[in-house]
Amino acid sequence: MQNEYLKSMQDDMNKTIDALKRDLIGVRTGRASPALVENLQVTVASYGSTMPLRDIAGITAPDPRMIVVNPWDKGTIQDIERAIATSGLGFNPSNDGVVVRIPIPPLTGDRRQGLVKIVKQHAEEAKVRVRGVRREYNEMFKALSDDGDMTEDELKRVLEKVQKATDEHVKKVDDICNAKEKEVLEV
């Protein structure tokens, strides 16, 4: 039973790592990536709804300084351009009636430092979630011990395993954060 709980704990911690990776994909670096805009919400007037950009267009990065958005329905091109321009990402899109081109301007030193702060914030949130998982499973194992389903020695061993898993996942978070910081600061 303990092994099942430990595996479940590992899965919960791994989900936190996966969520961090997804969050960091959207943090802009000096080069173009479809991930920068694919989750932007586009209000499409003709459809009467709001949808993620990836659901209404093909997104490519043909070179390091350009993202090209090719809408499947050319009637949505103005809506897409408006969503990108008002997204707060600092992009100035243009369209030629067929595709939307988004030139990626080089990052300034101040903007890079701001992005590093965002990366660190995401990393700290991930660490808090990992520690929350640790707290949850520690409480559960202590309750099992209190109910007599686990001896004191077993409890001690399990709590050590929980702490070891927590330390490993916090290190993974730090490694991911450091790699992203390096990528953001790369000129």
Descriptive tags:
187 residues; alpha+beta; Topoisomerase I, Chain A, domain 4; Gyrase A, domain 2; 4-stranded antiparallel beta sheet; 4 helices
Short description:
With 187 residues, the chain is an alpha+beta fold.
Word description of this protein:
With 187 residues, this protein is an alpha+beta fold. It has 2 domains: 102 residues, Topoisomerase I, Chain A, domain 4 (Orthogonal Bundle); 70 residues, Gyrase A, domain 2, CATH 3.30.1360.40. Helices cover 56% and strands 14% of the residues. It has 4 helices and 6 strands. The strands form 2 sheets. The protein has a 4-stranded antiparallel beta sheet with strand order 3-4-6-5, covered by helices on one side. It has a two-stranded antiparallel sheet with strand order 1-2. Strand 3 and strand 4 form a beta hairpin. Helix 1 runs antiparallel to helix 3, helix 1 runs parallel beside helix 4 and helix 3 packs antiparallel against helix 4.
Number of domains: 2
Structural class by sheet pairing and helices: alpha+beta
Given the C-alpha coordinates, what overall shape results?
Answer: elongated
The parts where pLDDT drops under 50 for at least 5 residues are none
Helix content: 55-70%
Main sheet overview: 4 strands, antiparallel
Question: What's the number of helices?
Answer: 4
Sequence-ordered SSE layout with sheet pairings:
Blueprint: H1 2-25, E1 41-44, E2 49-52, E3 57-63, E4 66-71, H2 77-85, E5 94-95, E6 100-103, H3 109-146, H4 152-185
Antiparallel strand pairs: 1-2, 3-4, 4-6, 5-6
Helix pairs in contact: 1-3, 1-4, 3-4
